[in-house]
Amino acid sequence: MRSWVKQAELDAGTRSDRLTSDERAELARLRAENRRLQAASTRYAP
């Protein structure tokens, strides 16, 4: 329950010590894209 309250506070902008839900989603998306690009670069590298 405590973590849910902290996340709600982050999303509402009353806290700034951690990532918001949107920032977490973007970070996850960027990490996945980075893994995909790294795998592609090793596949096509000489």
Q: Estimate the helix proportion, in percent.
A: over 70%
List SSEs in N-to-C order. Answer: HH
Structure class:
mainly alpha
Low-confidence stretches: none
Largest sheet: none
The chain-level mean pLDDT equals 89
Based on CA atoms alone, the radius of gyration comes out at: 16 Å
Organism: Catenuloplanes atrovinosus
Protein name: Transposase-like protein
Keywords:
Transposase-like protein, rod-shaped, 46 residues
Characterize this entry briefly.
With 46 residues, this protein is an all-alpha fold.
Task: Provide structural commentary.
- The chain is mainly α.
- It has a domain at 21-46.
- Helices cover 76% and strands 0% of the residues.
- It is built from 2 helices and no strands.
- It comes from Catenuloplanes atrovinosus.
Question: What's the topology here?
Answer:
Layout: H1 2-12, H2 21-44
